[in-house]
Amino acid sequence: MYEKILVPLDGSEVAEVALPYAGELAGRLGSEITLIHVCESTEQQYRNMHQIYMQKMAEMTRQLIKKYVETPDAASIAVQAELLNGNPADKILDFAEKQHVNLIVIATHGRSGIQRWVLGSIADKVVNAAKQPVLLIRARGIPPREVEKVKTGKILLTLDGSKESEAVIPYIQELAARLKAGVILLQVVPPPSPVITIPGETMQIPYTPAQVELWKIDAAAYLEKMAEGFKSRHIEVRSEVRVGDPAQEIIAAADEFKADLVAMSTHGRSGIRRWALGSTADKVLHGGNTSLFLVRA
Question: Where do the domains of the chain lie?
């Protein structure tokens, strides 16, 4: 499931914060890592410098893997560095598809200066267009060399009761089992209001507390059913049901539980309230404080 991991770099320390996370995953899962740097037309004169930089990053990644590998033979885990030319987002996505990459690990900020890899630019394009799962690491200005231990012990997995939202489950089951992480299953019951149209007027009438309570009971039963798959793999799991705006509640729960990772499908509830980039996932992506694991349903 995670045979090949791709890490885009742009020469900044912020982008390099993704390396310790990729190194842990490779060490725990035995995954092959490819580091990729895309030179735009204005950077061709610095190509040799970029090659030296990528070789240095590859060696640093090999050392990071040794921290987490479960067997003495860390050398068997391949680390490659690729230097490409063209548009960064396009080249990253093309490479990921052609090389059958299983996971893209990217920091949410990158290049210092005018051309920053921020959400809304390169990382945003990769997240929106990638067919592979994407792990977005929220860089907080800590150089990767100072990251002593990557925290992946607590994963908040958001579901909404739809088959689309469940697409992320097998990926997180594999991660949690190999990383020995605990999982919190979260479903947010939004407080919708039925719309009643009267000639010349549209009214929204809130559901009663009793109706909302019934939805909470249904959500709890659903999460308990989903938890069975985690328990069968001896993964520590618990469930949480909340009422409110999905994005706001997910962000608040992640902060409250001190989650190391929020996991969700980029699509969810069928119909009007669809969990897709641009709605709930998009709000969590841009407004959250926690690293994010996204799987396209």
Answer: 4-146, 154-295
